[in-house]
Amino acid sequence: MVAPASPARVVATRVLHRIATEGAWASPALDAEIERAGLDARDAALATEIVYGTLRTLPSIDRALASKQTKKGELEPLTRATLRAAQYQLAHLSGAPSHAVVSDAVSIVRAQRGEGLSRFANAVLRALARERPSSPERATRLEVPKWLEGEMTRGLGAERAEAFLRARPLPPPIALRVELTRTTREALATRIREARPSGTVREGVLSPRALLVSGVGDPRALPGWDEGLFAVQDEGSQVVAALLDARAGESIADACAGRGGKTALLVSQVGASGSVTAIDLHERKLEQIDGELARLGLPRDHARIEARDLSVGVGGLERAFDRVLVDAPCTGLGTIHRRPELLLRLTPADPARMGALQLAIARNAAKMVKPGGVLAFAVCSPTRAEGPEVAARMEREIPGLTRLVDHVEGVPLAPDDDGVWRIGPFGIASDEGPDAYQVVRFGITS
Ligand SMILES: C[S@@+](CC[C@H](N)C(=O)[O-])C[C@H]1O[C@@H](n2cnc3c(N)ncnc32)[C@H](O)[C@@H]1O
């Protein structure tokens, strides 16, 4: 009688398989599979570690697997997911005994794909277990394919690229955006510390609205959530919205607003005398904005939504806004620590492909800005093809557009000499830090 595989390993393997074959996203797939299997907190943490750890170190895992495969060619997907998860544990998790890792992997493959593939998995993993380091260590760096390593260095320079790729803790802290019209950061921090004495609560250094919380459980169960005193938003994303520098009473367009991650902050900044129009290709996303504004107790009368394809045109909205934020669709490469599954999907052609779409959208968005107004172009990616190269073409090809290299009240950062604000874990002592973004601010003269 063979003992069943550990439920954490079964869940991790299933999630890695779904990511590779169904295009599933790691975070919701893990939540769903952990619940389906009824894992306790310890097993849930192990499954999460295996999934993210495997995705964050995939190039060396696949090299190791390839070195032990005598038959070349594509591996059967479930077998490949199982082998990847097992090799991650052998290479990086000191608490996992080799015999348990190997026998669990073999029994997962046998149960789901039969005897033949389980024998193959056994041979590969035994060979890898023999070469296992005596004290496996957690990875210190996110591993990315060669082309991407080149893109990162070209976009950020060697030092910042290294800072960006440095390993981050799992789970990462959750960033809260405090609604400063209703409370202070200090007051909310005190309430959360009192309610969750074993957690940690820190102030973000890049956004004056950010609190970074760890070990506090579901943020929606924290004090202040039901009262609408905060939202969940990455600290870098808070800085992006702040860089539009919206003022009380202004009319703003949040172009590419999605579910309104930045809309609420803009509504809060312009107040009841201003207005915000959230625009996106997908009405379904925009429909979520009103509920979030209501939860945060923000004025909703002057917040509108508008579904349209901004790469096609802005008919009827010409010169309608004091400021326009273009939070453009992009590769999302700045979020790869939180979403390492992107590394399985992106190709070397993607940054330039997304850059072309961004330029089409930005060209039209510029038409919506009143003379004397401001356009902020933002992407959550550090590549040149999506940031500075799009900005350079915007400046060359859109009449009346001038790059602003200025200071923005309340943002303790500065743009680089090329006018690009590069936001990320740069110059931050801790190993945490936000995702990576690029923002370019333009003034419109005509
Ligand atoms: C980076 S996301 C926006 C995130 C959002 N601003 C937030 O803070 O949560 C980019 C958005 O652009 C939208 N989008 C993509 N192509 C578009 C187009 N041609 N016209 C308008 N919106 C588009 C996508 O639906 C997506 O919501």
From TrEMBL:
GO terms for biological process: regulation of DNA-templated transcription; RNA methylation. Residues 164-434 form the SAM-dependent MTase RsmB/NOP-type domain. It holds the Pfam family NusB. The active site is at C380 (nucleophile). Keywords: Methyltransferase, RNA-binding, S-adenosyl-L-methionine, Transferase. The keyword Cell inner membrane does not apply. Gene3D superfamilies: NusB-like (1.10.940.10), Vaccinia Virus protein VP39 (3.40.50.150). Signal peptide: none annotated. One of its GO terms (molecular function) is RNA binding. S-adenosyl-L-methionine binds at D280, D309, D327. Belongs to the class I-like SAM-binding methyltransferase superfamily. RsmB/NOP family. This is Ribosomal RNA small subunit methyltransferase B. The lineage of its organism: Bacteria, Pseudomonadati, Myxococcota, Polyangia, Polyangiales.
